[in-house]
Specification:
Keywords: Coiled coil, Guanine-nucleotide releasing factor. InterPro entries: DUF7799, RhoGEF_Guanine_NuclExch_SF, Spectrin/alpha-actinin, Spectrin_met, Spectrin_repeat. GO terms for molecular function: guanyl-nucleotide exchange factor activity. This protein has 690 residues and is mostly helical. It has three domains: 248 residues, Methane Monooxygenase Hydroxylase, Chain G, domain 1; 180 residues, Methane Monooxygenase Hydroxylase, Chain G, domain 1, CATH 1.20.58.60; 180 residues, Methane Monooxygenase Hydroxylase, Chain G, domain 1, CATH 1.20.58. It is rod-shaped and about 180 Å long. The two termini are 46 Å apart.
Length: 690
């Protein structure tokens, strides 16, 4: 078809011996076509003498394309009205054939040629109509696309970010839907433009030389518009991605805010409600059940704490991006962190109270059982009332009463000192203490023979003996017993802190005994001066117990020094682990769009890494110091250092720090490279647009 259309326009094949037998001129607006009907001896052809606009001119915008289409349709309609003239020519040729039978074949050929030429002309004009229809469709689609992109760009800058999860998700969905819609429209528009361009080029390949310029101009106009659409879409894609990142970060912030509120509500609701319950039980069994429930709650509280740490890392990640302002969320997270720390301290205090309550009820119930045995012996003792044997038995049982009850009453007093005097949760402890003390008082009153024997001794000796027995009982039942029972620092920060707290309290109690030791020494000196036969023995016993207290104090002080180092080591280990977790999270999660991380964020991360290295160095110093001091202990055979030493050695030998350092250095270099590439690319784009 294109070859035939080109044939009808190829004037190079028309011999010069032709005659114009008719001219057809049609005009519609700026559109104009002048046709010449040419005749030679053997054929009749229709030649386009003049056509405006050119066949290839399809308009450079929608308005032009529509105008050309309207004018073309009018031109076709008017040209159709000229068909009668062509038909008249055909009738004339037929009439001539009838008059001259010898030329009938020639005339028939002329008629066929004229009819074919007219048909080719109409096909050509119909093809132009198709091009114009495609041009209108393409320009209309391009205009709609441009309008959509302009509206989208306005939305990017005008539509505010959301403040809740539902709205943030809806805005993000709308943004993605808008992008997909525009991309689909863009693809359809570009396909239409490319199809129009291909058809013009195809038609131009069969046009004569005079139409080459028009073909080139038409192609250039469409290609230029396609390039503009490409450029605008690329620019919009950059804005799309920026907006998408902002919307995604906004959604993350809203979700983060939602999770923060949940944690705050948990601390202020579930957490506070739990801690308002200060019940410590009425017996050993009840206290154990309370302890089991507390352990379960504490495990859940640790999960909440881990969730909060995860939120902190997420907030830090968002703050590293230039596209969002998460400072408000960060401040709220800091507030949550403070509340969590306060809650953790209160929870730890509750744990210690429950632990002490369990220990107290166990000791108190054991003591009451033992005192019941003493009571049975006192009530069933068949000895003469004033006999030395009865006095000796009463003295022994009186000391047993003190021995059995001292540790329990000491634990109870420490516990009651920790809680408020108005705390009803400790009423069970108070009742058990009253029961124990009442039982001791009752049994002590039954030891009458001991008191009768005591009156036979001097008042000075009685004073001395009372002081000595009190100190001796405290030393054995409290001091040495605590040192013996609390003989390991454990393998965690919590156990190390408990160990330290117990020994700091014991150290304080030992110092409080100095006044009693001085009073005992003075009482022994008075016995010696009075010439009492037991004076020298009393002085020797006073010196001996003073030496035992001094040794106990040295052991406790050494333990405190070790525990301080051990607690400090564990705190450093926790800080190091937390920092390594944060750095590892960063280098593993921040793998895309590294060039978008702000310089301030990079600097903060470098400071964090530097701080982590300092913590690592301090950890090694503190750990080695602890190991060195632990190896020098010689006067504390009951202290078990195997667990703590192995824990310190294991932490010091951990290679995680080295691994994270390697990850960090590679990640930092990647960030630097990404930022350099972004800078170079931006410079390249700026220069390309000049």
């Amino acid at each position: 078809m294109a070859a035939r259309r080109a044939e009808s326009m190829d004037l190079s094949e028309i011999p010069p011996s032709t005659t114009t037998i008719s001219t057809v001129a049609v005009q519609a607006g700026r559109a104009k076509i002048v046709l010449a009907v040419l005749r030679s001896s053997e054929w009749v052809r229709v030649r386009v003498h003049q056509m405006e606009p050119d066949l290839m001119d399809v308009g450079s915008n929608l308005e032009e394309a529509l105008q050309l289409q309207r004018e073309h349709e009018q031109l076709i309609a008017r040209l159709k009205s000229k068909e009668d003239e062509v038909h008249q020519l055909l009738r004339t040729i037929d009439a001539q054939a009838d008059q001259n039978r010898s030329q009938v074949d020639v005339h028939n050929a002329m008629a066929d040629t004229l009819a074919e030429a007219w048909k080719d002309l109409n096909d050509k004009l119909a093809y132009r109509g198709t091009l114009l229809e495609q041009s209108v469709g393409f320009h209309q689609s391009a205009q709609d696309l441009a309008s959509s992109m302009e509206q989208a760009q306005k939305n990017f800058s005008k539509v505010p970010l959301a403040t809740d999860v539902e709205t943030a998700q809806r805005l993000l969905d709308q943004h993605l839907d808008m992008k997909n819609s525009i991309l689909e429209t863009s693809k359809a528009t570009l396909d239409m433009g490319q199809s129009l361009l291909d058809q013009i080029k195809e038609m131009g390949m069969h046009a004569d030389f005079a139409n080459l310029h028009a073909t080139t101009a038409a192609c250039y106009g469409i290609e230029h518009l396609l390039e503009l659409l490409h450029d605008r879409r690329r620019h919009l894609e950059e804005l799309w991605n920026q907006r998408k990142i902002r919307l995604e970060h906004c959604l993350q912030l809203c979700q983060l805010d939602q999770e923060v509120n949940k944690i705050l509500e948990w601390y202020r609701g579930v957490g506070n409600n739990y801690l308002q319950n200060t019940e410590l039980g009425n017996s050993y069994l009840e206290a154990q059940h309370i302890q089991q429930d507390h352990n379960q709650f504490e495990a859940h509280a640790r999960e909440v704490q881990e969730s909060m740490l995860g939120l902190l890392r997420t907030a830090d990640g968002l703050l590293r991006r230039a596209s969002v302002d998460a400072e408000g969320i960060r401040q709220r997270l800091i507030a949550v962190d403070r509340e969590a720390e306060s809650f953790s301290n209160r929870l730890d205090n509750r744990r210690k109270n429950i632990t002490m309550a369990v220990a107290f009820f166990r000791l108190a119930e054991t003591a009451l059982n033992k005192l019941g045995e003493v009571e049975f012996q006192l009530n069933n003792m068949d000895l003469p009332r004033n006999s030395a044997e009865l006095a000796e038995q009463h003295s022994r049982l009186s000391q047993a009463i003190v021995d059995y009850s001292t540790e329990a009453t000491h634990e109870g007093r420490l516990l009651l000192e920790r809680v408020s005097s108005t705390d009803q949760g400790a009423d069970g402890v108070r009742r058990k203490m009253d029961e124990l003390l009442t039982k001791c008082t009752l049994l002590e009153s039954l030891c009458k023979a001991r008191r009768a024997e005591a009156w036979q001794r001097s008042q000075e000796y009685l004073t001395y003996q009372e002081k000595y027995n009190s100190l001796q009982t405290w030393l054995l039942q409290i001091g040495q017993n605590i040192v013996s029972r609390h003989n390991s620092m454990g393998t965690s920060l919590a156990s190390a802190k408990d160990f330290l707290e117990v020994h700091e309290q014991l150290d304080e109690d030992i110092r409080d005994k100095n006044a009693e030791l001085s009073a005992l020494s003075a009482a022994a000196s008075r016995l010696v001066q009075s010439g009492d036969q037991a004076g020298q023995q009393a002085a020797d016993k006073a010196r001996d117990i003073e030496h035992q207290f001094q040794r106990l104090q040295r052991v406790v002080e050494t333990r405190i020094q070790l525990a301080l180092m051990y607690v400090s080591f564990h705190r450093l280990a926790q800080q190091l682990s937390s920092n390594l977790d944060a750095l590892e999270h960063i280098v593993r999660s921040e793998t895309e769009d590294l060039q978008e991380i702000t310089d301030t964020a990079v600097q903060n991360l470098r400071e964090m890494f530097s701080n982590t290295r300092h913590i690592f160095d301090d950890l090694n110093l503190k750990g080695n110091e602890f190991l060195q001091n632990a190896s020098m202990i010689t006067d504390d055979s009951s202290l078990d250092m195997r667990g703590p030493v192995q824990t310190v050695e294991r932490i010091l030998s951990d290679s995680r720090f080295s691994s994270v350092v390697n990850y960090w250095e590679a990640w930092e270099q990647h960030v630097i490279s990404s930022k350099q590439f972004k800078s170079q690319w931006h410079q390249f784009v700026q220069e390309a647009r000049r």
